[in-house]
Amino acid sequence: MLNFTLRRLILAVPTLLIISLLIFLLLDFAPGDPTANMPLTIPPEVREDMRRALGLGEPVHIRYIRWLYLVFVVEPSHILANMTGLDVAVEGNRLLSWQSRSPVADIIAQRMPQTLWVVGLSYLFGIMIALPIGIISAYRQYSWFDQVGTFIAMIGFSIPTFFTGVLLIVIFSVNLGWLPSMYDTTHSVTDWSSFVRQVKMMIMPVAVLALYNAAQISRFMRASMLDNLNQDYVRTARAKGMNERVVVLLHVLRNSMIPVVTVIALGVPTIFAGAIITEQIFRVNGLGQLLITAIYANDIPMVQTLTFIFAVLIVLFNLIADVLYGILDPRIRYD
Amino acid sequence: MKLKTALMGAAACVALAPLAAHAERGSSGHVNIIYWQAPTIMNPYLSGGTKEMDASSLVLEPLARYDHEGQIVPWLAEEVPTVDNGGVAEDLKSITWKIRDDILWSDGTPLTAADVVFSAEYCMHPEGGCAYRNNFDDVINVEALDDHTVLVEFSTPKPVPYGPFVTSGSPIIQAEQFADCLGARAPECSEANFNPIGTGPFVVDDFRPNDVIQLSANENYRDPDKPYFATMTFAGGGDANGAARAVMQTGEMDYAWNLQLAPEVLEDMEAGGQGEVIVAFGSLLERIELNFTDPSPDLPEGVRATRDAPHPILTDIRVREALSRAIDRELLVEIGYGDTGRTTCNFVTNPPMFASDANDDCIVQDIDRANELLDEAGWEPGPDGIRVKDGERLSLSYMTSTNAVRQDFQALIQQWWSEIGVEARLRNIDASVFFGSDPGSTDTYGRMYADVSMWAGLFEGTDPQTYLGERRCGEEPRPETQWQGSNMNRYCNEEYDALHRELTQTADIEERAEIARQLNDIIIQDYAILPLVHRGRVSAKSHTLGGNKLNVWDSEMWDVADWYRIEE
Hints:
The complex is a heterodimer. Chain A is mainly alpha-helical. Chain A is about 75% helix and about 0% strand. Chain B is of the alpha+beta class. In chain B, strand 5 and strand 6 form a beta hairpin. Chains A and B meet through helix 2, helix 4, helix 6, helix 10 and helix 11 of A and helix 5, strand 9, helix 6 and helix 12 of B.
């Protein structure tokens, strides 16, 4: 198992290098201009000077190698230095965002908390809602509970978050005035009342995203349970006189979890990618909003770095999913 | 809601004095402003975006600026230099600014002429990539005559010498703070770019790019009673809808910027009762540009859309006039902009003294006259209703940026043009590509690989000389200039160029206005550009926010020191 993990980790390096090259080149060749969104009153010569000041004058391969160096060495060293207080930061230029002219890593670090809190919690809640619903729906297939569960899952699947989000705002912020429609990223929790405020800000975005996540995962859970409930080993277990509780929760559930765990693990990177639309609606300025504004502003260093981080996470969680597979299913051993 | 009530209650307690509820610094408490496109930097010289200029104007100030009526007013200067008061030289080649001697930076040190000279040096540095470089065009020398006097010399006579240090796009930055940030090193100074030391009413406490800025009143601000607000949250993110809702429906925010929303949406939100829409008109003009060169893909690159290939259809003024007459501008305003737009027949729409009144007949749609004109020009209706001449169909490609209102306009105009036998082939392109100047892209508005294109343009400040100068021969984008240029529709008229030269040599304001109106009339009566809508700037403010005057000629935050909370 350890061998397998190591082998996969080493294999991940060339994979990521190829991904980084593709990301860099794709974004580099894409049409677009970082000065495009500036007012039309700025004359072309000035725009040209601004582009030159952003370092766009040099050949592609030199910029790629410099970017790699900045992403793999300089920025991590600064993050490490900030976290540990050790003096390991590499001197020299840093990878700067074109919009704010400040280091990309600092801005990403600034955005991480709200994304993890809002999107991460919604994922957690989504899972916590989805698993019981999936299990009960499958066990009592076609019962009223299953029908209601299917209906809610259908709603979560088919109604886009930009609709449910605005609907919640209109009901709870505009008409009832109970919840704030905007998330305040500077709010810090110091006492009970500020905690209550934090919870109030998070209810709507978390609810919207949790519904969406729960809808997906509960369907997987139900389908997987149904597959297993009709297997011979279940009949055997029942014939041996085990009670239903043990049959369902020990035998069936453990086997049914295998594909579901994979789905859940592969979904984790999307937490970091944020939920672009939901973040936009509730003004949760997290990683999703950062990515979308960077794309609009043609802030190439920011887009490249964010997409590359997502790529790393996806590769990593793929690996984790594979390892979990082996742990959950004794039939699959990689060595 | 409860929190807001509590805050307001607290503010009311602080301002117990019944004489004037807002008579002293900080007495109005906290104010929330939302710019849904969030500022990314507090240094306008490095950004060029309106949102950054507005945010930084809370902290950084110019020597003079334009007020809400478009009048130039002294700000950090004692007075606005003119020829009459001796501040501008007789030959119009130099201007001398006297700086107020009672101005302190927020760190307590005095503002001196050295800071002003440094600000010019910072923006004029060839490697700095300064976005407002053009404010310093033709400047050959900036020097401090004494601690509070600055001389700016130009290489050519400047009838309007208010480029350097005027408006929020050209503010004074502190020499000491930015001393190590000149030229190529400008982007490295994140700390200074996020937390500039300024002379303005507020200082930055916490800056988060693209997210939120926390500010508090500047203890060293020149007016001891201002600003009336003690603290400010300058929030960003979300979208225009959410921002408008937060001001007018939920009351979470006090001021929201740039709410280009459908008229009925704004009306509905205003009914929420917490705030109101405010509109002011600058020079922003939604227009159709008619291409004088042939963008046909059959032509080789290098000839296509250049002056070597005159447009086969649009060089006939009768066709251009017919296209204009077929448009119902009143309907366009009603559908697209409501109270936030006006009909216009001018290229220069504002300030009033520069706006011509000779062209008002374009407002009324006249399909019959348009048909007559096309008949005269020899275009005969074909079998499918589209006119034909010498075997060629009267079919035009019509390009604009992707935007709901623009696509509505395209559909309406396509319909009207089909009524006069003109086919319009519609295309829309993402704004970041369309307004980009990537020489490799064929979809930019400068490349203009289309017969007609639609977008909105404006000019900075209150003088249209540069704006009118964009339409001179030789200013057009072409291969030799890497497709950079300002004369997007490749208009060229020697009479126009000569008159514009006269404008650049005239200092008297009345005469300038007269010449500008004539230039406007030439372009309009030549039907080179079809004005559609004079667009306003739309913001929203809470009913409890007072003292604010919407300014289209400068930052919307220009008078933020005067803002106060209206007590109920």
